[in-house]
Structures are given as C-alpha cells and as structure tokens.
Automatic annotation (TrEMBL):
<feature type="domain" description="Nudix hydrolase">
    <location>
        <begin position="43"/>
        <end position="171"/>
    </location>
</feature>
<protein>
    <submittedName>
        <fullName>NUDIX hydrolase</fullName>
        <ecNumber>3.6.-.-</ecNumber>
    </submittedName>
</protein>
<dbReference type="InterPro" id="IPR020084">
    <property type="entry name" value="NUDIX_hydrolase_CS"/>
</dbReference>
<dbReference type="Pfam" id="PF00293">
    <property type="entry name" value="NUDIX"/>
</dbReference>
<dbReference type="GO" id="GO:0016787">
    <property type="term" value="F:hydrolase activity"/>
</dbReference>
<dbReference type="InterPro" id="IPR000086">
    <property type="entry name" value="NUDIX_hydrolase_dom"/>
</dbReference>
<dbReference type="InterPro" id="IPR015797">
    <property type="entry name" value="NUDIX_hydrolase-like_dom_sf"/>
</dbReference>
<keyword id="KW-0378">Hydrolase</keyword>
Amino acid sequence: MTDMPTPTINASDVRTTAFGDWISVDSRTVQLAGSQSMETHVVRFPAIALIVALDGDDLVLIRQFRFPPQSWVIEAPAGRVEPREDPARTAVRELREETGFQAGQVELVGTLRISPHLSDETTYVYAATGLVPGPAHPDKGEFIQRFMVPRGNVRAMVREGRIVDAKTIAALAVCDVI
C-alpha cells in the first residue's frame, strides 16, 4: 500500500449544529493534497457501553422498540455513557435497568467504531458472567422485553436477519459468541 498524505483540517472552519442535549454535527472544510478540498460532517455522539451477558450457556438479550426504524430490534443491553462516568459502570447499570440482572464479573473485551464514516461514537464492549436475576427498571420511554437465547442459536438468528443491530453483532463476535 502507498502512504497517503493526511488531510489538513482547518479547525477554525468548524461549524457546529446542536440537536438536543447530547448530539451535534460538526461541519468543516478539509484541505486535501494540492488545492483540493471537501466538506465533511461528523456526528458527535456520546460513547456507548454494551454488555454481552451470559447466564450459563444462555445469552441475555433484549427486544427494544426503536423509533427510527419503527420496529422491534433485538440487541445486547447498552446505553449512553454519562459525562465523567466510567463505561464499566454504565454497562453494569444498563444490564440491571434493562434486564434486571446483576453481574458477578465484568470484563472489558474491546471497543468498536460502528459508523466511523459518520460519527465519533465509541462503543465499549463488556462481557458479564455470574448473573443474579432481579426486576428490570427501564428508563422512561424505553419499551424493552428481556429474553434468553441459547448460545448455539445466536449465529442462526444473525444469518436469518432476526438480529440486525450492528453493534450487537460486532460485540457478539468480539466476545466469541458467534
């Protein structure tokens, strides 16, 4: 592979448009090799902590109604990392809120960039074991159903298009579940 020059970014040219309390879009002109330039846009989105929770040979998943696709989506429990919050704490909190399970052991297994062409979002992937069941407490406005899936069925669910959430599929691969 040939080395390509790194584009020069003129930071003074950034225009930010905010959408609500935690999403914004930075637009800027990037100077490329020679006199070429292009307009770029970056969605600024907080980090996400996702937790792949195994209870014996069963995977804990959720079905959550997602408004952009107007449908139920099967996902691993996950949530936005609050400012100055440790992502591991977020993962444990989201597991408890969305599924009711408390984790005995939690381990960071990797990080993901789901849409690096569009967003600066980082997804921290944790694995959880030693689960203790309890009642779920979803946030207001979250429509969630918890369910268990035998680990051996997960790959087929992805192939059949039943699990389509990219961050969940990538996290399952990082955790060697699929």
